[in-house]
Design brief:
The chain is globular, with a radius of gyration of 24 Å. The protein contains six helices and 19 strands. The termini are far apart.
Amino acid sequence: MKKFYFFMMVILVLVLCTSCMKNDGDSAKLNDIPEKLTGEQGENLLADAEIVIPRDIDLSKLDILTADWLRMDSDKAYELFSGNQDLPLFQESTIQKGEESVERNVYEIGESGMLGVSQAQIFLWTDQYQLLRRSLRSAFNAPVVNESLSKFSADGDLPFMTREKAAAETRELLAEIGLITCDTYEWRLLDAQTLNEQEMIDSMNPEEPPPADWAQEDNFYYFIFSQEIEGLPLVNSIQLAEGSATTVPQTTTECIYGKNGVVGVNLQNFYTKTGVKDADVAIISLEQALEQIKNKYNNLISDEPYVIERISLEYFPQYEDETQTGYILSPVWSFRVKCPDQITPDSDHLILSQTDLVLVDAISGKIIV
């Protein structure tokens, strides 16, 4: 009888060890993904992509989360961005969030700037930001790699502060108002020379105001951060194509940092975890998600290839039900794909390349956006 029990214990240990090895293997299949994807991916598709995924959590299974909208600390935001001044109130209004009405106060700051604070939305448009916003009108609220911002460098540091320190200080300010962001982000150097070149292009339009004259010391860092929940970033609406099919409020985390600190901020539509809808859901591999991208772009007719430039694993907010009052956060594979320049069929007008953001449901494998 003792031999029988010993024999059964040996079998049980072997089964448990085999199970653990299998789980470790499944986990490694995702967590051992390389940092880059390069080369041909089909007839019309190339890859030169950075793969941005967390390397310190098990990615073989993820939770589908229930969520509510995040209430930011509006009083703290006013304290941080007002410059310790009593700003004149410009407007009082409300923002509708589901069934709630959220108060928003907008203040005058500087000669033409505005500071708007509420629990749902915060924006800081200083005088400098207003000028930048005009110069980069096609850049704001659009992908960071769009035509205007792509003219600016994403390499090096500015004289007044390193990029890493400027990003760290900005993220600390966001954390003080309740917004936790990922340590990976997208950015550009808004240097005076390129800003003036853009102003000269704009000045050719007689309906535009006179161009700004940016001095050499007028340099800025432009940051797009992503909110972090459970170790993953949330899809940022600033990356979604205009007219995207999704109607769920997407996050926007845009900040501009100059020699005197933060000069521009756009923050809205953040989420907070309230629970777990489905735990430890198996997700598809990068290879499976990539097949969906290949099917989408290899069927398109083009003289030049489409290029995958960035891949990441993120949470994507969706409505929990038709009442549109609660949310779920589901994992998605996110692909940034640069499209080739095109000539319109009815003219010789050149359409400059745009960048698509394609989201693949990491559970069903279907393209969402």
